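Hi there. Long-time user, first ticket. I'm pasting a complex I've been working with (about 230 residues overall). I'd like to know whether the download I got is complete or cut off, because the file seemed smaller than I expected. Thanks.
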Amino acid sequence: RKEVEQDPGPFNVPEGATVAFNCTYSNSASQSFFWYRQDCRKEPKLLMSVYSSGNEDGRFTAQLNRASQYISLLIRDSKLSDSATYLCVVPPMTTDSWGKLQFGAGTQVVVTP
Amino acid sequence: GAVVSQHPSRVICKSGTSVKIECRSLDFQATTMFWYRQFPKKSLMLMATSNEGSKATYEQGVEKDKFLINHASLTLSTLTVTSAHPEDSSFYICSASRGLAGGHEQFFGPGTRLTVL
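Hi, the file is complete. Here it is re-exported in full:
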């Protein structure tokens, strides 16, 4: 089982609709999680951090389900500019792996007019 | 704040040549820099971890003699792809961390697209 798994999509979403997708992780001891956004041929940019049960930032909501070992990202009122690949990132738990982020392969979201 | 630059943004070279990519933290001191490679529609794969003034730590399967990393200062790390071949064509991204105080947050450079003919 991969350490971080995501549904690659694409999720085709009408503008204004809500879309949600999950990321599963294998290490039950993981404490913090990140969602990054990556536009085509660009670098990843931090979207949200998740340290407890969840986090909300405007139209974006991240939730953590420790029992089932997944985090979700929900985008409300989708904008055309939300079209991107969303990367789930889980930091490792061992000190000798500090900083070695585990990236999921990403979920592609396409918002259509 | 926390801006990371990479140079060049794109490079096309002939097979057998070496290519150097620079990664700079512009407004902070990066105790650690990371080098990633990303193939189309694939996830970012960590190649190596670079700490200022010490040898880089390479991930399993990454040839250290092929991908030379130098972290000469707290604001600059370089990756040299030696004797590049077409299979080395990829998107190379660096990131920088402010250290333990900054937690796991990494700031990414804009990436370098390498095409080896």
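A couple of notes from our side: Chain B touches chain A at residues 32, 34, 41-46, 49, 91, 93, 97, 100, 103-106, 108-111, 113 (CB under 8 Å). The CA atoms of residues 22 and 78 of chain B lie 5 Å apart.
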